[in-house]
Each structure stands twice: as C-alpha cells, then as structure tokens.
Amino acid sequence: MTLSSDTVPIDMSVAPGPRGSRQLPRRTAGDTVRTVVRGFGQLLVTVGLVLLLFVVYELYVTDWMSGRQQHALADDLRNEWTDPATVNAPAGTAGAAEPAIGAGVAFMRIPRLGDDWNRAVVQGTDQEELSQGPGHYVGTAMPGQPGNVGIAGHRVGRGSPFLDLDKLRPGDAIVVETADSWFTYRVLGDPATGNFKSDPSGIPGQEIVPPTNVDVISPTPDQPESAAVSGSYLTITTCHPKYSARQRLVVHAKLDGAALSKAKAPDGPPALSGR
Amino acid sequence: MYTWIWRHLPGNAAVKSVETLVLLLAVVALLFFVVFPWAEPHLPFSDVTVDH
Description:
The structure holds two protein chains of two kinds. Chain A is of the alpha+beta class. Chain A has a single domain (58-88, 102-273), classed as Beta Barrel (Sortase, Chain: A). Chain A contains three helices and ten strands. Chain A has helices at 29-82, 84-87, 127-130; strands spanning 104-109, 118-123, 135-136, 147-152, 173-177, 181-187, 206-209, 232-240, 247-255, 260-261. An eight-stranded mixed barrel of chain A has the order 1-2-3-4-8-9-6-5. The longest helix of chain A has 54 residues, at 29-82. Chain A is elongated. Chain B is mainly α. Chain B has a domain at 17-41. Helix content of chain B is 65%, strand content 0%. Chain B has two helices and no strands. Chain B has helices at 2-8, 13-39. Chain B is rod-shaped and about 60 Å long. The A-B interface holds A 39, 42-43, 46, 50, 53-54, 57-58, 61, 125, 127, 130, 135, 137, 152-155, 157-158, 162, 209, 211-214, 216-217, 237-239, 243-245, 248, 250 and B 1-2, 28, 31-32, 36, 40-41, 44-52.
C-alpha cells in the first residue's frame, strides 16, 4: 500500500522529532497511574524487607553485639579483682558499696540454665547497661548483703541471658561470685512438689506481674519499698511472654547459708558441681 | 523506584550488578549499625525492668 504525504494519518502519541526521527512516546494518563502503582508496590515490598531485617537484627545481630560487650565486661571485672589495689584492701570492704553505673558488679551462675551459664552483672539497668548483660538495679542490695539484690536481664535478644528463666524450679541455685566470696541463693518454694508459693514468708519463687509492680525489688520482695529488711533475697526480672514486654517474669530467691570464701573454695560452692 | 536507580547506575549490566550489591550491603549496614540501634529505645519490645 502506498501513501501519499498528504494522507499519512497523524499518530497523536508520537511527537515528531528533528529530521523526522522518533522520540519516546508522550506519557499518557495510564502510564502515570501504572508508575505510581508500581512505585507504591515497590515501597510496600521495601518496608516489608526492612521490617524483616529488623526482626533479624533483634534476634541475631543484637546477640552478637551483646556477646562482645559481655566479654569485655567480664574481662574488666576479672582484671579489677586481680588488681593489687583490690586484693590488698582490708577484709570486708569488698562488695559492700555499689560501684559506678556501667562497672561490673559480680558474676552470676545459674546451673539450671546450663552448666557453663555464667554472666557478668553490670551496675545499672538502662538500655546501655542491659545490652552488656544482666544489670543490677541501682539502690538494691549488693550480693550477700541483707535486703533484696535486684537483677534485670533481657529475655530475647541482646544475648538473651534469661531466655529460659521460666525453667527455674524451687530450690534451684543462683550462685553469685564477688571479689572474695561465693553466695548461693535458692529459688523460693518446695523443691519436692515444685510449688513456688510454699515459703513461710509468703514470697513466691516465681510470679508474673505488670511492669509497674516495683515492689518485687523492694528490700523485702513484694512488700512496699519502705518496709523493713527481713532477710537476704535476690530477685530477677525479665519480660513476659517471651517476645513481648507486656508483663514481667519475676524470680525470687533467698540466700542459702553464709558466704563461702573464694580462698577456701576456689572452684565454687557445692551447688555448682551438682545441684 | 528501583528501575530508576538501575538505569542511572554507571557501567554495563555486570558492573551495575556489583554496584547494586555494594549499595545493598551499605544499606543493610546502615540499618543494623545506625538506624535500628537508634530506633530500639523508642520501641516497647525490650523493656525488662520494673518501674513506675
């Protein structure tokens, strides 16, 4: 078919270019809509991927980051304890005063959570401290002292120290190591029956509470903060359920026996070698 | 969005693929080491203490 120049139909979607060469088609309304929809779709996929990466971050990356911080904290604390200035201090001065925020406090071992479960505890319970490991609530008793030693730690992520805290049973040992002593705390309740609530003090070995219940770290657990000291306790708080921060899982333990000098028992109390 | 980026990367397809990989790693690193640590305290997932 031949066309003469004055009967060539004009294609309105093609703009004439210099010397008659074709340019890109002018955008139609349909093209714009398609681009917007495609862009929106890509945005949604991107947001989804970022959220997925965040989950990966919370579950794995923070564990790696916290592992390194925990090692550094543990090394610093060991070095501090073997420092001649500490070793030669008069007996009884070690461990009574709270250290500065961010400093190491003690080592904690919980055989129920693993034979080699061992964490350095840091002073303070802000995000920055807790990412290094379990933290000691400021103002609560120091290990071995009368009152209530308050410890907070992450459940999932950032090293997950207390992931399996719910597995602690009445009578389970929580061994705390300070510069010169071992202290063995035991979860309250009846080991024979597994009943957490059987202690005469009325303090349960394990309870689930709302985050605002600060009485769990009172000098006497579950009493008002101003109530008198009535014994030597240790309380651990973490979040509950596992992947939520809606409530707190709380474990209460009581000091079992007197301090064991590290000079006399360098490998720890009997609790560490077989319950 | 992504086709726009791809078109504006210099080089041929092979070079662009490498550049895309580098950009991807850079974005992931930025997320993991800057954005997420900044965002974390503002999210309620990681509260483990009792307070008023």
